[in-house]
Amino acid sequence: PAPPPPLELRPRRLSVSAIESWIANPYAVFARHVLGLDAMPALGPAPDASLRGRIVHDVLGRFTAAHPDALPEDIAARLDAIAAEVMRELAAHPRIAAFWLPRLSRFAVWFAETEPARRTGITRVHAEIPGARAFAPAGGPFTLTARADRIDEGPGGMVITDYKTGTPPSRKAMLSGRSPQLPLEAAIAAEGGFRGIAAAGVSRLSYIRATGGTPGGEEAILDGAELGDCVAATVDGLVRLVTRFDDPATPYLATRRAGFERAFDDYAHLARFAEWAGEDGDDAGEE
Fold it and tell me: In this model, does residue 6 exceed pLDDT 90?
């Protein structure tokens, strides 16, 4: 499948997370944002990674909102209390209570040990902040949107953090443009695009992963000269991507690009990729 819809039907507003899908598999953007199709939730789904991710985001978001300026005396105990509150509100499945709550508790201990260092030199921490930045390519205005999990403000610049329960993108993936989410959030921040936060430079991008194992968490950081180069290159790549798809002759190809694990999940059946590519699963049409 390679549908080329007219320019007026092509999306002019996408989130930073949708940009990765667009790079990996343009057909997913066509199905979601041109056809307006969303995947139906499975009937009676078991607790899965997406629910675990939601719980972790809720817990850390509430903790940050409650303590934007100073940390509580017992960080781990406060996180445990918030986790129990979130579980009650979700009427959590017994499997969650039995297996995930202890893992969250181990993550809380790790977070309590490492968070004071992250707060050093930080004046205020924000949680779940919406943002946007406008671009002006030849095809018409295009708006990039985001909701940052966490933004720390300080005299040394902003720190933008994304919380993960799965494996975070590698440094190589960010530098190559394959994982553009945080670099694009940095580009929004640099223009003052996040609500209530003045424009400022970004000194660090960070992924915090809640593993619940040993150790209970881990952090991946991109900073220094590489960060500035990465943000500039990612913005340039986005502008080139938008410009290319502003050509009505450019199709939204159904493809599978190496290194993008989640690019095809929701629309594989609709695109019938396996039938077009052949049973061996060759990556026909890959750029």
Answer: yes
The residue count for the chain:
287
CA distance 201 to 255: 36
Q: What is the pLDDT of residues 97-116, one digit of tens each?
A: 777 788 889 999 999 999 99
CA distances from 25 to 2, 74, 178, 261 (A): 11, 45, 12, 11
- CA–CA separation, 94 and 97 (whole Å): 5
* Separation of alpha carbons 26 and 261, rounded Å: 14
Give the span between the Cα atoms of 274 and 263, in whole angstroms: 14
Alpha carbon distance 173, 182 (integer Å): 11
Q: What is the rounded distance in angstroms from the CA atom of residue 251 to the CA atom of residue 277?
A: 17
Query: For the residues 66-74, what does the mean pLDDT come to?
Result: 94
Helix (H) or strand (E) holding 110: helix 101-119
4 and 250 Cβ atoms separated by less than 8 Å: yes
- Asked if 12 contacts 140 with a C-beta cutoff of 8 angstroms, the reply is yes
Omega before 26 cis (within 30°)? no
Q: Is 209 helix (H, G, I), strand (E, B) or coil?
A: strand
